[in-house]
Design brief:
The protein has one domain: Aminopeptidase, CATH 3.40.630.30. Strand 3, helix 1 and strand 4 form a beta-alpha-beta unit. The chain has 120 residues and is an alpha+beta fold. The protein has two helices and six strands; from the N terminus they run E-E-E-H-E-H-E-E. The chain has a six-stranded mixed beta sheet with strand order 1-2-3-4-6-5, with helices on one face. The two termini are 30 Å apart. Helices cover 20% and strands 44% of the residues.
């Protein structure tokens, strides 16, 4: 699913979710990405599209949303925390940016209220 926000000048932000894995044991988990056009950052566009994605994913019956963010991306980390995402770990040397391997902070948000199937 892809959700976007536009202005007169065209698209300014989008949030997209796609299956975490094709394996059936990961059914219901969505991996997501958010992009906000540089000149619209800090105006709430990212929050709007991610909040809409959370709502749509919940309505579609997804169990969890997960993603990664570079550690120094403070604005994204604050946004994610504000929308209920938890930072659950670090992927070491997980993303290459400008030819350099980078670490990524793993984030997730459970969308359902829990299940008796989960042992704890």
């Amino acid at each position: 699913m892809i959700l976007g926000e536009t202005e007169e000048t065209g698209p300014v932000a989008f949030a997209a979710s796609f299956p975490y894995s094709a394996r059936s044991c990961y059914a219901g988990i969505g991996e997501f990405s958010v992009y906000v056009r540089r000149d619209y950052r800090g105006r709430g566009a990212g929050r709007a599209v991610l909040a809409a994605l959370i709502e749509a994913a919940t309505a579609a019956g997804l169990h969890k949303l997960t993603s990664r963010v570079f550690p120094e991306n403070a604005a994204s980390r604050v946004l994610l925390k504000g929308l209920g995402f938890d930072e659950i770990g670090i992927h070491r040397r997980h993303g290459k940016l400008d030819g350099v391997w980078r670490e990524c902070v793993i984030v997730e948000r459970l969308l359902d209220t829990g299940s008796a199937e989960y042992p704890g």
